[in-house]
Amino acid sequence: MVMLKLFLAFSKISMFAFGGAYSFLPLMEAELVQNHQWLDESEFLEITGITKLFPGAISIKFATYTGYKIAGILGAIIANLANLLPPVLFVMLASLLYSRYKEIPSIKAGFEMMQYAIFALIIAVAIQLVDKSQVFQLRHIIIILASFGLFFYAKVHPAVIIVAAGVLGAVLR
Fold first, then answer.
1. Higher model confidence: residue 91 or residue 18?
2. Which of 67, 69, 84, 96 has CB atoms 3.0–4.6 Å from 79's, for a disulfide?
């Protein structure tokens, strides 16, 4: 029964996580912490932090961690299959439909509204991930603005910005 619950939970998460990595976090928190209590709030936040240390998709790291915690290696495999199956099927179907109907105004408008909802969710998650009591320290404001500028205007690769920020933080302590 636990394998079915893992499969359904991660399928549900991946079916509604539009817009990339951080759109998964509110869905994961609702499903893994609130609905199933597989993780508590502090563990969820710790795992969110740990996922930043390793390359790869956040959803895969959460599926692996949670699946393994709940049901061992088979649980990790089931959670990851559930995590990957809906997007694969959606992309296959979307490729077919998009190529045929992409110029229809209501389709364009629907995708545009989804982008703004995802934008809001990403901002909300970003705010949740930082220690709000330290955001207004001068060094943090500088790193936020510099990172934004380097990424948005200078088109510096995000990995370079992240590594540079980590090195700078370690040096400046």
1. 91
2. 67
